[in-house]
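To start, one record:
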Amino acid sequence: MTSSALNKTVKMYTKVLVVLIAVSLMPMVLSRTRRYSKMQSNTLYKIRCDLKCIDISKEAKPMCKSQCRINEKKPGTCPISDTPKWEAACVEACNSDSQCDGTQRCCRHACGSTCSEPVDLLTVAGLPALPTIEEPKERKRSVVIRWSDGVGDAARAVPGPVFYVLEEQHHLGPKYEEMRLGDWNLLLRTNKTKVSLRNALKPGRWYRFRVAAVSASGTRGFSAPSAAFTPRRGPRPPPSPKKLKVRPIKESNGTVTVKLEWKEPHSDLPVMRYKVFWSRRVKGLGGELDSVLVNHQTVPKDQNFIEIKDLQPNSMYFLQVQTISQFGLGKLRSDKASIFYNTTTTARNEPAPEPLQRRENKIRGLALHKIVWYNHKLKARIAWQPLPNVYEQPGRYYVHWKAIKCNNPKKLRKEGLTATTEQTTFELYELDYHCSYKVNVNSLPRVRIPDSELTLNVPGCEYFKRKVNTTTINCDA
């Protein structure tokens, strides 16, 4: 092959390669161009056009702003040797400054164009000085943020009013991690150099702020970010799910299937999951309600319902839903929202029985799980929710129980019994038949008003003899 033929072949392959590169890069370039077009609504140059048209009549102002944004010419000089990756393909990434993000300009090159930062933006005359943002300060229920207004010759040389744009970025968690910060979000625009943010920041999040000064002439862009900041008040446990509702689905093979629905609550933290509990309630000989085998199941965060199968007909069920959130390595749990449901088809409108009597104060969720007879002794298992504490494990709990009423007055004790535990469950012991007990669980050993209270009714001997189904219980003894 001659050298001329070889050169022709090389040129042909080069052209083919250029076309292939152009085709392969076109989607990316178009997506960037669409992004730049979308960014035309970015706040900095929207404000610049607002200020440029501030003295125009009300009727002519919309047209003035529209023309300003279309024919945007940003300050600063394009770099001389800015070579984009797709320059060989001669692709136009932009046609005007209005298609470029922030302070970037649409810079022309020997083959194509691209959005680039000007090289002399900090020295261009007539623009507001670049602000310097101070460390945020928390005052009572608000956060105060200040920044410099560029006092000096550069600031005095700016004609017309100056507006400031404040933005924030944040991430969730107990520790600050810069890599986890999200996108910048607009907080507000103002003509002052100090703002007080009330109810704008959520607990459990780390924030950074930045500010830009804008005039009718343009802007030098955003300041360096502020120091990381988090509100003093940590996140609270999530609220209980709202508006519980039970819908019957079907009855087959002697069992009932229902659908339990709820609404997601508004919370300081995102919902991680839900936990659903259900139990059949039966009446003991003493007339109290007792739960038979408490079932539970976890539900994903984006699902606000659950189908509960194999329920017994002609029975009363107690259903509960709990919200669970996560903060760092710890979990925060809500109080349990509850509802009764009667599977008796002919008596759906009957009022639900009253739950066990209890008063909750600091410690929540105190409830009876079951009463057990074993080897001629009675025990009652109770449980409660841990004290909400993000950073530490719950401390000790002080359990006190005392008989307040018995069929046999000789069984009444003057002082009652007290025990200490680090768990959130406990088995009450030395209980007697046909007695009512007042149970308190407290976070401190001595309190005037109990943190929680539960009234527990122990049935008579015959109830346990029938339940245990044994001849070892002698009720006549």
